[in-house]
Please model this.
Amino acid sequence: MSDGFDFVRAAMAEVSYPRFFHTDSLSKEDHLRVKALRVLPESYRAFLAEFGSGRFFRELYRDSHLVLVWPPPNELMFVGTDYMMQVGTFDSNAAFFSWSEMQASKDPAVYEWTSGRGSLTKRANSFVEWLKGVWSSARERYGKRKWSTVMSGPPEFNASERAIVRTRAGFSWKQLAANNGKVCVEIDNKSDEGLQWYTIGVRSRRRNFVGAFYIDVSRVPAKSCCSVEVAMGGYSHLLSAEMAELFDKGQPLPESRDEYKELMGLLTSERGVSSES
Model:
C-alpha cells in the first residue's frame, strides 16, 4: 500500500538540476524529538523517516526553495487561538499542525499563516494532502523553458563568467574590527585582474540570520591589498556591525550564479522562476 509519497520519489529521480530537490537526514536530537512526540501524524512521521528535512523547488540560480519540510521544533507557537507546531513553509507561508488536533486526531489538518494577510487558514486535511497541494502549486511556477532547464541542469559558465570566476579565485579576505557601525574587511587581490564586486556571506554570531554583502572592490587593483568598510545597509535593523560574522561562500557554481553580484546579469538564457509557458 502506497504511503502517498511516490510523487516525491519520482520527481527526485528524474530531475538533474543540482539541489533542486534536497533532503538532509535528521540529527540525533531530531530523532529523539520525533520519538518522544507520540502524537505526530503517521504520514509526517513516515516522511521524516525516509526523507528527513526537505527543500524542494529551488530557484534556478540561487539556493532558495519554495517548499520546505522541517522536523518538529523545540517549541510550540501560539497562533490565533491555539498552540501550533510549524512543520514547513510554502512560498514563505508557514505551515502548522494544531496541537489540540494532534492530540485528538491521528491525521490533523495543516494550517498556513499568510504573512501578507496576517491570518491563519486551513490549507489541507492532512500532511500528505498539504504536500501534494503545495507541490502542484510550486510546479506551476515553472514554465516549459524553465522546466527544461530543471530537467537538463544549469547552463555551464560562459567565457565572461569563467574569466570572473578565475579572477575571483585570486582574492582572499580577513574580517577586521568594526568601525563606526561599519564592517571592515581586508581584501587581498593576488589576481592579475581586478573586479567590480566581491560577494561575502554574512550571518549573526547567533546563526539566526544569514545574508550576503556585495563589496565594491573596484579600488583593489591586481596584486594589491587594502581595507574596505561596508555599511550595514538593509541589514541594520537585523544585526549590528559588531555582531556580524563574515563567512566564505565558496567559489560560484553554475547553479548558484545569482548569489554572486560578480556574475549577476551575465547569463543571457532564461533564468529564475515564472509562470511563462
Observations:
- Residues 268-277 have pLDDT under 50 and may be disordered.
- The two ends are 36 Å apart (CA to CA).
